């Protein structure tokens, strides 16, 4: 630096140093600002990711709780329905038991009515068979009654069919169980054709046909039933 005094040289150097310091300071500030910005962006991303994970975790927990609640409600509802159905069946069975008791009382305590019933049951079975030779089974306690009504039944059958005759033979070796309410079992062609017309069987048939009507009478129409007879 010819022609410059020492003081001028020193001033020039100081000016250059100040400029360099200024540039360095600005660069540092720029780096700090960029680092701060990147830090804030990364912090925001991490916070957002953590928040999303937390929300997802609690969403799953809420769904699990809701599912468990629905399962419990469904179990309670099913349990209540089963209890209601059980009670309905108990009431229906009570009604059928009353019907059995009434029939048994008629058979054991009302001879005149039971006699008419035995004639009707035998006639119904004969008309279903339409065979000339038929064997009839009864309870042992009904044997005397059956012996008395056989001629009357044969006459009624002939009148009802207008021309057909039937030979009705009582099986006095094989009686129906004594605990049956009563009634008859008729067979033909060596037991190849058989009609069970006992009072127990009739009650069973009637109860199976009447149960839907009894349910509706006792408990009202079934809302889930789409079609009606």
UniProtKB/TrEMBL annotation:
Keyword presence, Thylakoid: no
One GO molecular-function entry: proton-transporting ATPase activity, rotational mechanism
SUPFAM superfamilies on file: V-type ATPase subunit E-like
Matching Pfam families: vATP-synt_E
Record keywords: Ion transport, Transport
Any Gene Ontology CC annotation: proton-transporting two-sector ATPase complex, catalytic domain
Source domain of life: Eukaryota
Assigned protein family: Belongs to the V-ATPase E subunit family.
PANTHER family: ATPASE H+-TRANSPORTING V1 SUBUNIT E1A-RELATED
UniProt protein name: V-type proton ATPase subunit E
Organism expressing this protein natively: Biomphalaria glabrata (Bloodfluke planorb)
Lineage, opening ranks: Eukaryota, Metazoa, Spiralia, Lophotrochozoa, Mollusca
Gene that specifies this protein: 106071441
């Amino acid at each position: 630096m010819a022609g410059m005094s020492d003081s001028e040289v020193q001033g020039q150097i100081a000016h250059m140093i100040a400029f360099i310091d200024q540039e360095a300071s600005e660069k540092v500030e720029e780096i700090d600002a960029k680092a701060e910005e990147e830090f804030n962006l990364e912090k925001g991303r991490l916070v957002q990711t953590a928040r999303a994970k937390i929300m997802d975790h609690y969403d799953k927990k809420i769904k699990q709780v809701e599912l468990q609640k629905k399962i419990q409600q469904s179990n309670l509802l099913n349990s209540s329905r089963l209890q209601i159905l059980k009670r309905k069946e108990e009431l229906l069975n009570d009604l059928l038991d009353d019907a059995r008791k009434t029939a048994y009382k008629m058979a054991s305590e009302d001879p005149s009515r039971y006699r008419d019933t035995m004639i009707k049951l035998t006639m119904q079975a004969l008309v279903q068979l339409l065979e000339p030779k038929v064997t009839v089974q009864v309870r042992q306690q009904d044997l005397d009654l059956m012996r008395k009504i056989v001629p009357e039944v044969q006459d009624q059958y002939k009148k009802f069919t207008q021309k057909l005759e039937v030979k009705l033979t009582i099986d006095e070796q094989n009686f129906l169980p004594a605990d049956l309410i009563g009634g008859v079992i008729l067979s033909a062609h060596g037991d190849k054709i058989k009609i069970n017309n006992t009072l127990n069987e009739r009650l069973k048939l009637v109860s199976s046909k009447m149960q839907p009507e009894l349910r509706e009478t006792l408990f009202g129409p079934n809302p889930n039933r789409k079609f009606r007879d």
